[in-house]
Amino acid sequence: METTMKQVQPDNEDLHELIRKLDEDLGQRYHSPDEIFTVDFSDPAVADMIFIVAYAEGDPAGCGGIKPHGREFVELKRFYVEPAYRRHGIAAGMLSQLEGRAKEAGFSVIRLEAGAPQPEALAFYIKHGYYAIDRFGEYADSESSLCFEKQL
User: Fold this and answer.
1) Three-state DSSP class for 134?
2) Is residue 139 part of a domain?
3) What values do phi and psi take at 109, rounded to 5?
4) Does the first or last residue of the chain, that is N or C, have fewer Cβ atoms within 10 Å of its Cβ?
């Protein structure tokens, strides 16, 4: 399966459609919308984020982004692969690209938040070198949040 990765602007239609599907999936997994942490695309700080969309045979198949937290670390955000395209290496390719972009920008740490209702994601992150850390930032008071980081 031919896959390409493309850095996109925050207003990219494919990015927003994939995020809509991610939110739908998370809405079915979690009991409360308060447990789902989104990106506020009306926030001017979104301009500092890097987003990529993965295309499989030309169709949007996955997305992800990194959000800087000062100069301390970047956070992996809105990471998703369409179910039909899973188990084809797309997630690993996107993760590698985003980690590379973080390193290029001078960051040595990448963090993320997920939760127990996302067992596939948790296994994926652990497989790729992420380890559990204390909840940080907006997740500090979220009992359902599980946070991870990786040294780049």
Assistant:
1) coil
2) no
3) -135, 135
4) N
**CATH code, 67:** 3.40.630.30
Give percent of the chain above pLDDT 70. 98
Residue 39: per-residue pLDDT: 82
Q: How far apart are CA 100 and CA 5, in angstroms?
A: 13
User: Which residue range is the domain that position 16 belongs to?
Assistant: 3-108
Report the side by side order of strands in the sheet with 73-81. Answer: 3-8, 50-56, 59-69, 73-81, 109-115, 145-151, 131-133
Partners of 81 in beta bridges: 62
Ranges of H-type helices in the chain: 13-29, 90-104, 119-127
Q: Is the pTM of this model over 0.85?
A: yes
Residue 31: its pLDDT value, please? Answer: 73
Asked if residue 140 belongs to a domain, the reply is: no
Q: Which residues contact 123 (CB under 8 A, 6 or more apart)?
A: none
- List CB contacts of 42: < 8 A, sequence separation 6 or more: none
Q: Closest by alpha carbon to 84, among 151, 1, 20, 5?
A: 1
Phi-psi region of 114 (alpha: psi -120 to 50; beta: other; left: phi over 0): beta
Q: What is the mean pLDDT of the chain?
A: 93
